[in-house]
Amino acid sequence: MPLGHIMRLDLERIALEYIVPCLHDIGFCYLDNFLGEVVGDCVLERVKRMHRDGELADGQLAGPSRGVAKRHLRGDQIKWIGGTEEGCEAINFLLTLIDRLVMYCGSRLGKKTEGGHLVELIFLQPLSFLQAMVACYPGNGTGYVRHVDNPNGDGRCITCIYYLNKNWDSKLHGGILRIFPEGKSYVADVEPIFDRLLFFWSDRRNPHEVQPSYATR
C-alpha cells in the first residue's frame, strides 16, 4: 500500500475517532509525538533562526484594541509565514498535515471548515491558504492574559498549536496554556512540551491564557 495512502488513512482515523469526539465532548485535545524528533527538530531549528535573526515582531491585540501592542497583556513576538519561504520545508510539511486533519474533521465539527482556521506555531485562513503564526515568549514573566482567539465571529473555527519547547519543566519555566471551557466547572492546563499538537475551539467556548514564562517559550 502506498505510503501516502497509509498516511491519509491514519490522519482520517485520528481526526474522526479522536479529534472530533474530544472537541465535541470537552472542547480540546492534543496529540503528542506528532512529527517525531527528526522532523520536529527541523521545525525548531527554522523557528530558532527566525528568532535569532530578529524576524519576529511584537504580537498585536484583537477585538476593540485590534492592532495595538500592549506588552503587559500580550508578551509574545510573532511572524506569519505560509510555509513556502526558503528553508521552511519542514514547516510546510507540518502545515500540510494539519490542513488534512482539519479537512477530515470537516462537517462533523458542526461548522464548515473552509471558513478558516487558526494553528502557534498558529494556523489561519482557508484550507488552501493556510498560514502559521510563529510565536515566541522571550521569558522574563511574559505571557498572554485571558482572551478568545476569535471574539468577533470572523469565521475561524479551530485553534491548533504546535509546541517546540524541549526539556520544558512547567514547575520551573511556567508558560502553561490554561483553558477555561465555557459552562464547565474546571480549567484545563496544557504544558507546552516539544512535538505536541493541540486543538481547541477558537471562539468564545474556550477563553484561555498563557501563564507567565520564565524561559524562552
From TrEMBL:
Pfam families tied to this protein: 2OG-FeII_Oxy_3 (PF13640)
Presence of the UniProt keyword Ribonucleoprotein in the record: no
PANTHER family xref list: EGL NINE HOMOLOG-RELATED (PTHR12907), PROLYL HYDROXYLASE EGLN3 (PTHR12907:SF28)
A single Gene Ontology CC term: nucleus
Domain of life the protein comes from: Eukaryota
Originating species: Hemiprocne comata
Segments forming domain Fe2OG dioxygenase: 128-217
Documented EC number(s): 1.14.11.29
Keywords attached to this entry: Dioxygenase, Iron, Metal-binding, Oxidoreductase, Vitamin C
A single GO BP: cellular response to hypoxia
GO molecular function, one term: hypoxia-inducible factor-proline dioxygenase activity
This protein's encoding gene: Egln3
Catalytic activity reported: L-prolyl-[hypoxia-inducible factor alpha subunit] + 2-oxoglutarate + O2 = trans-4-hydroxy-L-prolyl-[hypoxia-inducible factor alpha subunit] + succinate + CO2
InterPro entries, alphabetized: HIF_prolyl_hydroxylases, Oxoglu/Fe-dep_dioxygenase_dom, Pro_4_hyd_alph, Pro_4_hyd_alph_FE2OG_OXY
Cofactor list: L-ascorbate
Protein name per the record: hypoxia-inducible factor-proline dioxygenase
